[in-house]
Write a structure and sequence with these properties.
Strands 3, 4, 5, 8, 9, 10, 11 and 12 form an eight-stranded antiparallel sheet that branches. The protein is built from 22 helices and twelve strands. The longest helix has 25 residues.
């Protein structure tokens, strides 16, 4: 305390602070900003209780205290300096950070139960507090009248045995159903918890509460341990969610309901599906974007338009491939890559048939790789069915594609162009090492990233090995080398940012490595040996 004496706080002062009878300056005579936790010493502890909290809430309401004043002058000192001395550690654990992580897994019954719920609510509202809320009345910000009503009901329940217990305000009901918004957890709970969850969800949904509508709507979408499958109820909830709540995913869900004819015994309503997918697409929902592309591709409700569908999917592909490479394995890259494969097989001419089948197989391999990782991360509705259909498509195409176990030779290292071409504005290190029998080992490593959050990994597809890889480097061997040019002083180690080819008369094209628009190395060979990656 920079030479100052400690601040001794008595039990009586703690009690007065807990009920807001005294403020921070009253008990310390110093601004809160000039006091550290080490400066405080209490002769005795005081256990803050629900009556104290009731007094605090009443004072804040009656005095029209602003949210900023409450948080700075009462809440922060309590959490930072007096948390242990007011015995809140007995409720939440050693540190105030435990308040946020405390789980609301039971309905409050005792004084401490309700005190914990209110303190947790204040803590979360404090975290959400922004500059735009500075002058708002705390009574409005915390809905103090409702909190006081909950405390009043609790006192009445304790004093009069004829009053049935279990009267809860909407805010508490909402916190409760949010806590159990996971059917895998809810299915194992006792009948009291399950019954309360359904009752609260139904009551809140009837009032138009968005959390309850979302929970009930998606529970009825296919059914859960609490709700039977009811497509009409699901649709009614989703309609309110997107119209009144601006919840774009609800419009996407309605698109699925009508696309698959859930309300018409399996007969699709493509007109309504197109409408809801369009609404959700305007909200930026990826699923709806590629479902709209599906409809243009198949001519469902709209005229078939392959260029438009392809353009929509290609735009999504670039975005979601990058996200996948950054580690977003739960995203929609698998779905987008699958559709990229489908597009390759549309309107094939006899001359391009083999090429387009090969390209489709490459995209299907990417979709399979991404879907496998997604299924390891989480369980998405329909992923197993999608994987089964995807592998059936791959099996039909696989017959026309040569396969190898460990190595294969090609007249061009296509993986190199995929590796470098997928990430513009990046730098790569090139290493050229001479081997026996007129061979050169080529190793390319990505050495720069877009930003510090960039994983530095690139998705590379190996159709002949039936696999994909996420990697930051790539190697292959050039055989029967005809050209290998690079500055002698570089010792075969260079930096480049682009790769292209140079046509040669009467011999295979050469690969040219470019940095800042100028060639820095070149290699040409009769064939290139690719090895299976270690995935």
């Amino acid at each position: 305390m920079n030479g100052r004496k400690k601040i001794y706080i008595s039990k009586e002062m703690l009690r007065d602070y807990a009920s807001m009878s005294k403020n921070w300056n009253d008990i310390t005579v110093l601004p809160y900003s000039r006091v550290s936790p080490d400066d405080i010493e209490c002769t005795e502890y005081y256990r803050m209780d629900l009556e104290d909290m009731e007094e605090v809430l009443k004072k804040c309401r009656d005095l029209h205290i602003t949210a900023i004043s409450f948080f700075l002058n009462w809440w922060e000192p309590l959490i930072v300096h007096l948390y242990e001395y007011l015995c809140l550690s007995d409720l939440f654990g050693d540190t105030p950070a435990n308040i946020k992580g405390s789980r609301f897994t039971f309905l409050p019954v005792s004084d401490d139960d309700f005190l914990m719920w209110i303190i947790r609510k204040i803590y979360l509202m404090y975290e959400d507090f922004t500059l735009s809320d500075m002058q708002i009345d705390l009574c409005d910000y915390l809905q103090i009248d409702q909190l006081l009503l909950q405390i009043k009901w609790h006192w009445e329940t304790e004093e009069n045995e004829q009053i049935l217990p279990g009267r809860y305000i909407d805010a508490l009901k909402r916190d409760f159903i949010r806590e159990y918004d996971n059917d895998m957890i809810l299915r194992d709970q006792d009948p009291v918890i399950r019954s309360a969850f359904k009752t609260f969800t139904d009551e809140l949904a009837e009032k138009g509460d968005f959390d309850a509508l979302r929970i009930k709507g998606y529970a009825c979408y296919g059914g859960s341990s609490i709700y039977d499958c009811n497509w009409q109820t699901a649709a009614d909830c989703m309609e309110k969610l997107w119209k009144d709540g601006g919840f774009g995913y609800a419009a996407n869900t309605l698109g699925y309901i009508y696309y698959y004819g859930r309300l018409s015994e399996g007969t699709p309503d493509y007109e309504k599906a197109f409408y809801y997918y369009s609404v959700a697409s305007a909200f930026g929902i990826t699923e709806s974007k590629y479902k709209l592309a599906d409809m243009f591709l198949k001519g469902q409700y709209v005229h078939k338009n392959l260029p438009l569908a392809a353009g929509m999917i290609e735009k999504l592909y670039g975005e979601y491939r990058y996200r996948f490479e950054q580690g977003d394995f739960e995203g929609e890259f698998a779905d987008v890559a699958l559709r990229m494969g489908n597009i390759q097989l549309e309107d094939m001419s006899p001359l391009s048939s083999d090429l387009m089948k090969f390209r489709a197989y490459r995209f299907y391999l990417q979709a399979e790789f991404a879907l496998t990782l997604r299924m390891q991360e989480t369980k998405f509705f329909g992923d197993e069915s999608v994987m089964k259909k995807l592998r059936e498509k791959m099996s039909s195409l696989s017959l026309d594609i040569p396969h190898a176990r460990k190595t294969y030779k090609d007249n061009t290292p296509s993986q190199l162009f995929e590796f470098v071409g997928s990430h513009a504005y990046c730098l790569y290190e090139l290493k050229l090492r001479a081997l026996k029998n007129n061979r050169v080992k080529v190793t390319v490593t990505r050495i720069s990233r877009y930003d510090d959050k960039d994983s530095g990994l690139t998705l590379v597809c190996y159709p002949y090995f039936d696999c994909c890889d996420l990697t930051d480097s790539l190697s292959f061997i050039a055989s029967s080398v005809m050209t290998c040019e690079y500055p002698e002083e570089s010792d075969g180690v260079l930096i480049f940012d682009t790769v292209t080819t140079s046509e040669n008369r009467n011999r295979p094209d050469s690969i040219v490595f470019i940095y800042n628009g100028r060639p820095v190395a070149m290699i040409g060979a009769a064939s290139y040996e690719i090895r299976r990656p270690r995935t």
